[in-house]
Amino acid sequence: MSDLARLLDCLPQIVFSRGTQILLDALVCAGALFLSYLLRFEFALSATEWHQLGVWLIVLAAARPTCMLLCGTYSRIWRYHNLDDAFVFGLVSSIPSLLLVPIRFLLSSNAGFEPIPLSIIIIEYGAFVTLALSLRFLRRMTFSISTATHRQYLRILLIGSDYSLSHATQRLRDLR
Fold first, then answer.
1. What's the pLDDT score for residue 154?
2. What is d(CA 3, CA 67) in angstroms, rounded to the nearest whole number?
3. Mean pLDDT computed over 16-38
4. Whole-angstrom distance, CA of residue 17 vs CA of residue 36
5. What's the whole-model pTM score?
């Protein structure tokens, strides 16, 4: 474990930066949309579907991280990501998907553009949330392992309810 910690300690700080997280979210969004098209059309996309995928890939990969940035998702400290943060992340991530539904009905296929199928919106949302939360968990684990060799422990006793203890431990971590 210490060899892994030393190896991870060599990673540059840019790997753990907010800009990197935004870029990773855009890539995960694009990957989730690509995966949802492949699953929806059983890995056999027509030229129209490839064109549609290309357009929505650019739009959604830019819109989702922008929405998350505007809603303050990136201001949360990802090193202490917990279930509450995951729930908020899921809610904020749903906004672009929910906006796609009326856009889907407003864009008519008569205008020369095929609307995005509802099944793709649902599959993409589920795939994005699953992949993005997994990525956050992986980054948290990587960071924890890379800083494990530099930790100095202080023993303390905390007494209180589960909720207050959770916040107290999080505040103590922030002090480091």
1. 67
2. 39
3. 90
4. 28
5. 0.74
